[in-house]
Design goal:
By secondary structure, the protein is of the alpha/beta class. The protein has a single domain (4-54, 68-121), classed as 2,3-Dihydroxybiphenyl 1,2-Dioxygenase, domain 1, CATH 3.10.180. Helices cover 20% and strands 38% of the residues. The chain has two helices and eight strands; from the N terminus they run E-H-E-E-E-E-H-E-E-E. The strands form two sheets. It has a four-stranded mixed beta sheet, with helices on one face. A four-stranded mixed beta sheet has the order 5-8-7-6, covered by helices on one side. A hairpin with a 5-residue loop joins strand 7 and strand 8 (115-121). The two termini are 23 Å apart. The relative contact order is 0.22.
Length: 122
């Protein structure tokens, strides 16, 4: 159902570097870009995640209550991606079992304050 999700950025080059390095772990590559945005997509296809300089010219801000969840196959992959995000300068928002112990999640905020998590079903 979801074709893509976008996150605002105030520093496109910094955001590109952050996500290039983070998504390299799961093989996701850039699938489109311009002077205002970049999109990434997993090797298997499916939805894309993009960072954009806001079109309206106002500064990008992190949405209160907004979050992007990215499914991966294993708990070990969640841990590796969460650790890599923190290594790249993200802020830790916690990791571990959630939702009645059914999901293992690694939450973080990217360099622009956007909240994301990597998760798997356990």
């Amino acid at each position: 159902m979801i074709g893509y999700a976008t996150l605002g950025t105030n520093n496109l080059e910094q955001a590109r570097s952050f996500y290039d390095n983070l998504f390299n772990i799961i093989g996701a590559k850039r699938s489109g870009e311009s002077d205002r945005h970049t999109l990434w997509q997993a090797p298997s296809g499916g939805p894309k995640l993009g960072v954009y300089i806001p079109f309206d010219g106002h500064p990008a801000t992190a949405g209160n209550g907004s979050m992007v969840g990215i499914h991966v196959e294993t708990k070990e992959m969640v841990d590796a991606l969460h650790a890599k995000a923190l290594e790249l300068g993200a802020t830790d928002e916690g990791n571990g079992l959630r939702v009645d112990g059914k999901y293992y999640m690694g939450y973080f905020r990217d360099l622009d304050g956007n909240k994301l998590n990597f998760f798997t079903v356990v």
